Amino acid sequence: MTLPQDITKLQSQMKAAVQEHWKAFLIEGILLVVLGLAAMIVPPLASLAVTIFLGWLFLISGIAGLALTIWARAMPGFWWSLLSAVLALGAGIILLARPVAGTLTLTIVVGAYFLAEGVSTIMYALEHRRELSERWSWLLVAGIVDIVIAGIIISGLPGSALWAIGLLVGINLLFGGISLIGMALAARNAA
What we know:
By secondary structure, the protein is mainly α. 85% of the residues lie in helices and 0% in strands. The protein is globular, with a radius of gyration of 22 Å. It starts with a helix and ends with a helix.
């Protein structure tokens, strides 16, 4: 069980660490902003890069999973572990062999995710509108925006595969970088 004094101590240690290394956070933030803007300027290249990166991740995890599964073949769940490793290996090979088709598939998955997220957010907002008082409308709007994004992505297929993933990753990198820059500058000023 974490005690309040432990939390206070942890918070002060975190604050000290951020203040001590604010330059590293600033550099990382600037790098993320630059990468985010690049991804937003050239989303087809960013989409392809994300697909290839995921392909390598699946390939490496599949190889490692296969090796570890064979090494520990006496362990319970061998066949499930083997299946998981083979699927990861296959997904990696497919994404690396056909990255454009992989980008299309990933875009469909992202569109379906935004659709499901939008519907569930709207349902949550409607279900909890009494408890959330006037703030439930923000959730409702967020759900509607998710559905609109899903509609744009899905209705634009296959053309949206060229820009959707790259643009979304670029926006994520941009805002992540901006938040790190803000945190670094606040830590510098507090030091």
